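Budget justification, computational time. The allocation requested in the original proposal was used primarily to generate structure tokens for proteins on the priority list. As evidence of use, we reproduce two of the resulting records. The first is shown immediately below.
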Amino acid sequence: MDDTEEPELLLSASDDVYSYFMFVAPTEAKKEGTANTMDTWIAYFLIALNLFFQGLLLYAVFNRVVLKTTQWRSRITEFEGSGIALFGEVGEGCNTGSSMCTIDGDDVTCAPPSVQLTSRWDELDLDGDGIWTREEVMTAREDLKCKYVVDPLEVFDVIVKTVVNREKIIWVHPEVKAGNMIHKPYFTYAAGDIIMCGYGNKDMCGNVMERGFFDGALEHNTVSRVGNTMNSAMKYCYELLKPGGFCDVTLPSTYSVWKIVSTQECQDPEYDKFTKVHPITEVTKSFLQVDYDARQAYETTKTLLFRTFLFIVLSIWALSMVYNFRLISIVAVWVMIFPSSKEAAKTGEPVVYLEDEDTYEIRGIDPLHRIMVGIITVVRMGMLLTLAGIGFCMLLKCTSYMDLIMDAVSLVFILDIASILYAQTLRPQIRDQTESLKPMVLRLSPTWLNKRPAIKDLLWIFAVFTIVVIVIWYHYSTTINPMYKALECACARTGENCREATVFSADFWYKYWSVETPKVFADVAVLKGGGQVVAAAPAAAAALAPGPAGAWTWSPAAAFHAERHPRSHHGHHNHHHKHEWHKVTVNPGTETASEYMVDRQ
């Protein structure tokens, strides 16, 4: 059924200062003989007051709420190319350090700058000879500083200091003591402690334990500073990460800045209890793992329920904006096509008082009043568009249900200021004078759509829903998803796209404690004997083999060959061993063995 109507708009008085401004001057001219009355001037004053109130509130909302949230997000992860450097001065085109996390393709890295360098040996050892020299530091210094926002010379000195301070545990090469070079074994030895510093504070030690990062040390008892009990492992972690501990004292100042910033930006901690079973002794012990409000809040935003809730709130807000837009559009049409007072005077009076209905009927408007209403309409439209934009930004920043509701109520309050001023300041008699006006009919061109207003209403609804869906999709693609990845990485050190979680995984730590750390002592024994530790051949399954005279070549495949299967240990190891790797041991009775044996029993 083709439901058609006359192509016309009906303009009626409404209960706000804009409608009062439009109609009080013509009715006052009829009633008092002039439009220049106190009630007319009050209308101008209320319009100015409304615009001032709305403008000031919108400025405060944008500056103190929307902009503050945007700045907080930019401190978490990079959304733009500029910002205030958190970690020091940088050159043009360099990493500004304005964000804790940087994005590289689909991955994100949030480790402190000094920790990032510990996993990038290939960028440090420029000639690939297995030794990081001070000359290489100076050669690549500016490039590395530009890329990672940390002075590699500071990191070099930190590693030297860390190794020298452990001289009672490990033999230190004279060139390392002199600060001239760092051999790869010493770098590997110190890197474990520095990488552990990337977990930020001692509250994360429970998380480290829960993820099995100490299992290799607990199973093989190859690292004296970690020990082979859960208590000793936790003590090792605490000593590193506690305030004033190894990390705070030893690492460059950029680490302290990163630690403070990460603690602030991740917001309040939340603790959960868990139990950990020792992989060898089967002793069970309770610990606390920590999570942070910022990450949990963004996790909530990714649920289907929250997205639906957000869609509803945004749709209602958008519909209210469309409603006001259509009202303003009707006023704009009235300004453009409504007859002038001169045209109305040809057939009667511009304003007529209808005694039977005790109301006024406006049939024509004065040119000056038409201009003033037109100017106010343009300003009103600009304010509405500003309110719509800031409103969307304010609602999209919300990460909780209550925040969404309260912010929506706040926006409605700002929108209703015009009605509040009208109802609270004007006396009932003058309000009735404009509210009781006979509606004005505005004739439109008889187009197909104008003759079918029901279809027009339906199109507006579909348009609003479509726009809201696009806005939500864009917001999640450009803000929510990157922020969630960054907060996972920065606060919990987890996530599929977190470089630290991928590179420094449970497998990495198991290998580090059970293979790499014992191997360090083997390599150092070779150095102590006057030999050299050279880079391994790239063969995938290279075994231990004699190197050049006085040298010893090692490949991870030799000690960490990839047949992975459970094995028993003291009768119960098979039940708890999560890492299906061959056991790697040093020579019996010494930590400085020069070769490894793969136990295949």
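The second record produced under the same allocation is shown here.
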Amino acid sequence: MIITTTTPGATIRFTTDGSTPTETHGTLYAGSAYIAQSTTLQAIAYEAGFIDSSVTSATYTINLPPGWTIKDFNNDGNEDVLLYNPSTGELGVYFMVGTTPLSFLPFANLPAEWTVVGVGDFNHDGRPDLLLRNPTTGEVGVMLMNETAITGYVGLGVVDSSWTVVGLGDFNNDGQTDILWQNSSGALGFWTLNGTTVTGFTSIGSLPSPWTIAGVGDFNGDGKPDLLWYDPTTGNLMVSLMNGASVTNFEAVGNLPLSWTVAGVADYNGDGSPDLLLWDSTTGNTGIFLMNEATPINFVFIGNVPAPWRPLD
């Protein structure tokens, strides 16, 4: 985003937190400003010998395509990688720039019986929230986040342990993050949500054994979430192209070595196609399959995740 002033040499400060910018308060504008979520920006220009400008404001609304969930934990416009230590319950994040990890930040601890089963923006603040599941009690809830700070928790309900969360996406095109479930029988369906309120359940069909859903993303560029299928016995991957709850076509993706799994789906290189975060459970090696829709075009090794840490979607 570009901010301009008619006063030559004037300094511009801006805010996005609701506060009023002044000569001493706000972010110094340095030629461009990045906004990753819906927000109201306020700006002021000032220069010695001139009267300060009035504070001007503009509201920007940013909506993700239905097939996408946000995983940017430091609001820099890059998708990050969430890590989990099942031995301690600790959560951390690899801050990324494209496919390059810059730094690691541990930020929370989960009770031993809870785990993260999804990342998405449930309360529409432009920040990724964490979907949690207690497999013992069946409880499901959302940990609301402001970057890496926990701001609240909302319970969603209790689900039988035969059901597993396998992805997030806006399956009914209402601008809300929905939750995709797979049953041990192979049955598939999704919870429709309004923010953090479950509004219904829609059946999709059933997967033949031993296939499972490994992720959700828009793999054909139509703005609708598609399903990434994975066969753990062969390593085969394929995509079912979707129109809401209806399958419109299938596309083969490729084959993974059996020690590798899909740990997440996100657009790491910013080209508009969902990429696949891959993890080798034997060695901890982690990399990204860069994709052109459903076609892998390159593999980028990003590092080694030391045991018992593992990446999460």
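A brief technical remark on that second record: The CA atoms of residues 131 and 142 lie 5 Å apart.
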